[in-house]
Amino acid sequence: MATIINLFKGYSASTRQVVIIGNGISGITCARNLRKKSNYCITVISSETEYHFSRTALMYIYMGHLRYEDTKPYEDWFWTKNRINLLNKHVSKVESSSKTLYFLNGEFFKYDILIIASGSNPNKFGWPGQDLKGVQGLYSYQDLQLLEENTKEIKQAVIVGGGLIGVELAEMLRSRNINVTFLIREKHFWDIVMPTQEAILIERHMREHHVNLKQETELGEIISDDNGKVKAIITKSGENIECQFVGLTVGVSPNISFLKDSEIKTDKGILVNEFFETNVKDVYAIGDCAQFISSINGRRPIEQVWYTGRMHGETLAHSLTVIKTSYNPGHWFNSAKFFDIEYQTYGNVPGTISAPLSSLYWEHSSGKLCFRIVYDIQTHHLIGINVFGIRMRHEIFDRWLSENKKIGYVLEHLPEANFDPEFFVKYENEINFQFKKELV
Amino acid sequence: MKNESISLANPDKHPLNKGTKFSIALISIGLLVFAVSFLNVKLKASYFLPISLSTTIFGIILYARSMYLNEPAGVKNNGAWFRSLSSRGLVGWILGVVLTSFYILLYWFPSFLGLGENGEANTGVIAFFDPLSKLLNGKVASQWFMYGTIYTTCIVALGYKFILKYRHSRYQVFRTIVVIIAQLFLAFLIPEILEGLNSDQAYYAKDLKNMWPLNYYFFDAWHIDNMRNGGSLGMAYLVWGIVLFLIVTPIITYFVGKRWYCSWVCGCGGLAETAGDPFRHLSSKKLSAWKFERYIIHGVLLFSVIMTAGVLYNYFTNTTTILGLDTYTWLRQPYGFLIGAAFSGVVGVGFYPILGNRVWCRFGCPLAAYMGIFQRFKSRFRITTNGGQCISCGNCSNSCEMGIDVKAYAQRGENIVRASCVGCGICSAVCPRGVLKLENRDEENKLNNNPITIGNNSIKINL
After folding, report:
1. Do B81 and A421 touch (CB under 8 A)?
2. Taking CB atoms and an 8 Å limit, are B78 and A65 in contact across chains?
3. Short-list A208, A216, A217, A226, CA closest to A171
4. Cβ within 8 Å, pair A64-B3
5. Where do the structural domains in chain A lie, given as residue ranges?
6. Is-contact A161 A137, C-beta < 8 A?
7. pLDDT per position as a tens digit, B308-352
8. Peptide bond preceding B334: is omega within 30 degrees of 0, i.e. cis?
């Protein structure tokens, strides 16, 4: 066994070795902020790709909008210039008692501070045939390479699971003229997150893009041909759907299998407190793989979003260099794109809106734009918005939420929040006209 | 890891529909007639020029409709990095060589295109344009008339295609309608007709919007004299030309940025935005390219200022030399050859399929450099980023024809304030998360520098 010398130019033996596992947005944000604020020796380890790339852009590589290199947020020289060392290796074991990482090939690496930002893996729920050739999820760069292989010359695909990655995968496959059947277990698309009217809007748009949506349909099993490759699926209701590819997009789970023999406590994810501290001293976890022991600001214990990963990285770096800082995310925000329709959300919009909350919903006659505002029935305070096909300013809604603005104020000042490009048709008057009638 | 598309499958499996096939046939017929005229076959131009132009334009219109109208409005970039034409593949290289060769003939060997020299009649492809030229300005065609006609045809027809492609964005639709009108009327029809109406006077540039230093011969002695001798119209052009670059340009650029010119009315920009659109992603986004750009474009601006100063010195002192050096040999000729012809034409358009569609605008145009200085230091224009919504996907940078690494700013929540931005707005149009907006606002806080993106309250920053 050989150790990798981790003393880089300009460092002495007393320089603190900070090692980050994972070069996704969480790990890289942390590394960048550590570098800004410290003189630590920073090493980022990943076996996925040599350089950080934007995971959210994988779909654009497949569709031919971008090349892989266009998805790198920083040019390759950035890492040398900022003295962030990149190791393209796979960590197989963490021995926290000796502060040592072991790689697949038997090499090892010593750390002073370990930050685990190892991300997720696509879920598989034990369906018969889920490991056949032509069946896969979509998360990593390797998944994208596999997708290229698996979708070569195919005609029919089935996607299981109605969430963001499912729609993205549908858009990807449609860009290659592959017929897509999309199985949704629930009555409507992404109904944990989306109120029904928004879900119906998205479903209509997916159908406009020739996606064959099957609601309230569950995967039963995946059928193999003679070569161990998928040839069809059978739904729980017994329907047989011919296909040469099955995309499993039923969520992701923390990628923590390499920790199973370690002293680091895990549940679904790596258990951390509000300082991202695990049960082991000098070991931290951020991003998709971290699970908060107790909910922070009413949020879910595992946050698998680009933006939260970035915030985790920012906060932990601040904690390790300036002052110990607890994670305090502001108002929730997110965005996505469903084929051609952009979606933004600010604040809290539950999938099912009930007392003490209520909401107002406007939809344009084209059926492609909508706006929902959720408010508190008692106080009339703004709680959150969903907006489709209109861009709105993050900064303004963040401020209005903080200042507990009332719905009347928000509606009156809605034009200030508009972020659509110049010359776009404005809908604030139409929205206000309808909502004022409904509020009376 | 290799830096290339990892596509293994044939990604372009869309079979051509009947409309697309028919439109390609029409375009081919139109271009074939041009090709035949090139070979100096005696075609009756008064019949075949309209046939050729109209089949080509009509074919492109049909092609665009069959390409885009059967799908919902939205970003249409599928396969841009797969297709040979738009990813520096074989087709792209062939087109690059053909365009470059055409420009070399146009600038330096027009007789090969059929320009009749020493009073001889035109032949070949230039003769093909004689009837149209006679109709508009009463004279036989020059190589520049032929070029102007083809150029305008490209902007009109491919502008229509652009409008359909980006029809989800009203900014793009409005902008492109203005681009087409500016080229068709201001740059082509009006100057040609004015030329015909004033055929007794010597030539001077009559494109109302083509100003110094892009029009580098504006202050040449012959040009000033021709304007001064051109009656009230000539004097009006002389005064307007000076007012336009000295007063009008800084003022409009202060309010809306240089985009009012570069991506709304400029002829070079017009061709880049329409015909050049399929190549916009080919521009280099590297920091090194930006460093090179700053030297070369400001170098060209300096060169044009020195040349013009020399020319004006000669004009007012009635001399032809400066410090014993002949101004024509040492300034005007090198500028005209290197910048006016080789850079703006041969490289600027010929290299579209290799280096992207704004090579000239980005690296060479002295007017762009001049307006860029205002845009960077004294303008209300900037591209705003929307809080913390950026996902670093890279679509904005990819689409930037000027090679600005837009996402480098957006992912930090910073506004984009760059001298080179021509405000085409495509970064905003292709952003999947609604992050970018071209805005004219107070100069205060134009250069924002957020230490932390919006949405994270963990870290309090005392600003």
Report:
1. no
2. yes
3. A208
4. no
5. 17-121+253-321, 135-250, 333-439
6. no
7. 999 999 999 999 999 889 999 999 999 999 999 999 989 999 999
8. no
Secondary structure letter of residue B123 according to DSSP: -
Q: Do domains A135-250 and A333-439 have the same CATH topology?
A: no
DSSP-derived letter for residue A246 is E
Helix (H, G, I), strand (E, B) or coil at A270: strand
B457 and A50 within 8 Å at the Cβ level: the answer is: no
Distance CA B110, CA B116 (A): 9
* Paired tokens of B291: 């460093």
Cβ–Cβ of A392/B72 closer than 8 Å?
no
For the residues A326-348, what does the mean pLDDT come to? Answer: 97
- Cβ of B5 under 8 Å from any chain A Cβ? yes
Q: Which of B2, B4, B6, B281 to mutate to test the interface with A (most CBs of A within 10 A)?
A: B6
Please report the ipTM that was assigned to this predicted complex. Answer: 0.95
Q: Hey, CA dihedral for A127, A131, A135, A141, is it positive or negative?
A: positive
When pLDDT is cut at 50, 70 and 90, the band that residue B461 belongs to is low
Q: Which CATH superfamily is domain A135-250 in?
A: FAD/NAD(P)-binding domain (3.50.50.60)
Q: Can you tell me whether residue B321 is helix, strand or coil?
A: strand
- Residue B5 binned pLDDT confidence (cut-offs 50, 70, 90): very low
Task: Say if residue B271 is exposed, middle or buried (CB neighbours under 10 Å; 0-12, 13-18, 19+).
Answer: buried
Closest CA of chain B from A332, distance in Å: 7
How many Å apart are CA B354 and CA A68, to the nearest integer?
19
d(CA A242, CA B54): 48
Q: Does CATH number 3.30.390.30 belong to domain A333-439? A: yes
Residue A398 sits at the chain B interface (C-beta within 8 Å)? yes
* pLDDT level of residue B11 (50, 70, 90 thresholds): very low
Sign of CA dihedral B164, B165, B170, B172: negative
Name residues whose C-beta falls within 8 Å of residue A122's C-beta, 6 or more positions apart in sequence: A136, A137, A138, A139, A143, A248, A249, A250, A251, A252
Whether residue B10 is predicted with pLDDT greater than 50 in this model: the reply is no
What residue ranges do the domains of chain B occupy?
15-71
In chain B, which residues have their Cβ closer than 8 Å to the Cβ of A318? 458-459
- The distance in angstroms from the start CA to the end CA of chain B is 42
Name chain A contacts of B391, Cβ cutoff 8 Å: 54, 56-57, 306, 335
Task: Name every residue whose Cβ is closer than 8 Å to that of residue B145 and which is 6 or more positions away in sequence.
Answer: B129, B132, B133, B137, B192
pLDDT over 70 (residue A6): no
Q: Are A382 and A403 in contact (CB under 8 A)?
A: no
Report domain A17-121+253-321's class. Answer: alpha beta
Cα B218 from Cα B21, distance rounded (Å): 46
pTM of structure: 0.95
The answer, for B397 touching chain A at a CB cutoff of 8 Å, is yes
**pLDDT at site B460:** 72
Looking only at the bridges linking them, the beta strands covering A211-214 and A179-183 are parallel
Any idea what the Cα angle at residue A174 is, between residues A172 and A180, rounded to 5°? 105
Residue A165, min C-alpha distance to chain B (Å): 14
DSSP string spanning A206-234?
A: HHHTTEEEETT--EEEEEE-TTSBEEEEE
Q: How far apart are CA A103 and CA A91, in angstroms?
A: 4
